[in-house]
Amino acid sequence: MEEGKSAENIMGKNIIGVIGNFKRIVDNPVSKFLLHKTLGYCEEDGASRLETALNFYLGKKEDCCRKCKVTSKFIAYIVSKGKKSFGVSEEEFKEQMEDQYWVRGLASVLKGIATFGVKKPFVPGAPFQVVWNITRACNMRCVHCYENAGSKGEEELSQGEILKGLDILANCGVTSLAFSGGEPSIHPQILKFIQHASNKGLHVALATNGYKFLDLGECMKFAKAGLQFVQISIDGIDPETHDSFRGVSGAWDRAVDAVENFERTGIFVEVATTVTEYNFEEIPEMIKFVRRLGAHWFMLYNFIPTGKGAEIVEMDISPKKRLKILRKAYRENFTDEMQEMQILSTAPQYAHVAHNMSFEDVKIIPTHFYNPEYTNPMLIKLADFVGGCGAGRFYMSIEPNGDMYPCVFFPHEDEVKLGNLLKDDFDIVWQNNRLLINLRNKNILKGNCGVCESRNICGGCRARAYNYLNDVFAPDPGCTKNENEWNMIKNYLSHENFQKMHQNGLTMNLRN
Q: Which of 87, 273, 297, 430 is the most exposed place for a label (fewest CB within 10 A)?
């Protein structure tokens, strides 16, 4: 893990270096004109012009069209500026860029600079990650399921439509695609989808309950198809906690076997757990247990009361408990074993916790993708560009029928629907959708979230604000700075009252 972690820090420095150094270039009219010329898809080379130019510059592509060759010279200049300022050598850079994942990521950064400019927070040219819930079918009955999964939906896309959708995402510059559900592993064509996405250059991930992967041979099939990252859910150190949460006896044992099996395939393994009152007390021991299993990451998911989760809303933890567990998680990243596993969280408050804690002059400013170590003060300052809630900025979600939302935790309501993958132009949605534009503007957040000194690196969870307060810009009631909102809300924390709260518009009264 040490080698991989170093590589990520090198690449993280370079990407942030490009962002930090490019403002004066885009402010130059000639440079700005040239950069815009690099955008778009090159039919001759069968890839985005930026990605083709990067691969030619890196020596990964022997030849390309004349326009892409010219673009590669311009890109080389931009990248060299980023490397020089942040101490990344040419050798280190090219070694890391052997992974096509980073080539696509850097191409997206450059496209984002050309499209949106250099602003806080930074917006890439396409989502770094899209989570695609390809089916509602599931072999479990999880009490917190945001998808209300169970049976296959009537409007689910066909095999051909999904393959077409994968082409759209790849051609628009999406870096990583995570198949989710429901339970994606039981979709009859999942291996074909993984292989197709991998062949298109996407970094392919799978979010699974692990039940199907009792056998190592099954895991190997997914590895051979091109799967590079797997997230397996384990919701407690006690099998009874997990099995009751998942509604299936023996689910814990099979999830643990899946972690061990996938670790043997060489696929990057993340264990995920949704933190609720059910398992809050087990989290410290979970950290030790997951580390012993050999997982690379342990992800603490923010509980969001949407889908079936609205039925157990009273199991949400308080802001003080959330702060306690995030501080514990951050400290654990600095234990002797930290090189073997990093602990992340989807709670954006994690970045605020990190900003106020450091160990041996080293800071980790968490993002949704990894925990880069920052010792350079310039890099810490630039965390303002990459931190905070990534909904509609670093990632998006797609439903089984192709409908798109800012993230998986937004309810399936027209107010927060962005469009449809097969019916709308993906690039136009990403660049011009009004909700996405507003989600990227930290200056219009309300209450304490709008005036907090950490709004750029945190900004609160927008899905949590929307699900509790019917307002995507409302204060996130999961933060200790918004305990007034939480104290009013908790009086309604039962399923029956929560439903009435929405039906009668009581959230408006809470917000005002």
A: 87
The model's confidence at residue 369, banded by pLDDT at 50, 70 and 90, is low
Nearest to 321 by CA among 461, 152, 207, 478: 478
Whole-model pTM?
Answer: 0.89
CA-CA distance, 193 to 206, in Å (whole number)?
Answer: 11
The torsion angles phi and psi of 282, rounded to 5 degrees, stand at -90, -10
Q: H or E stretch including 350? A: helix 349-355
The per-residue pLDDT for 93 is 76
Helix, strand, coil tally for the chain in percent (to 5): 50, 10, 40
Q: What is the mean pLDDT of the chain?
A: 85
Return d(Cα 95, Cα 294) in angstroms, integer.
26
Kindly write down the DSSP assignment for every residue of 170-205, as one continuous string: HHTT--EEEEESS-GGGSTTHHHHHHHHHHTT-EEE
**pLDDT band of 420, cuts 50, 70, 90:** very high
pLDDT tens digits, 477-511: 999 999 888 988 877 666 566 666 555 544 434 44
Residue 454 near residue 351 (C-beta atoms within 8 A): yes
CA distance 25 to 47: 25
Beta bridge partners of residue 132, listed in sequence order: 179, 398
Confidence of residue 361 (pLDDT cuts 50, 70, 90): low
Q: How far is 235 from 428, CA to CA, in rounded Å?
A: 38
Alpha helices in 99-250 (DSSP H): 100-116, 159-171, 190-199, 216-225, 239-246
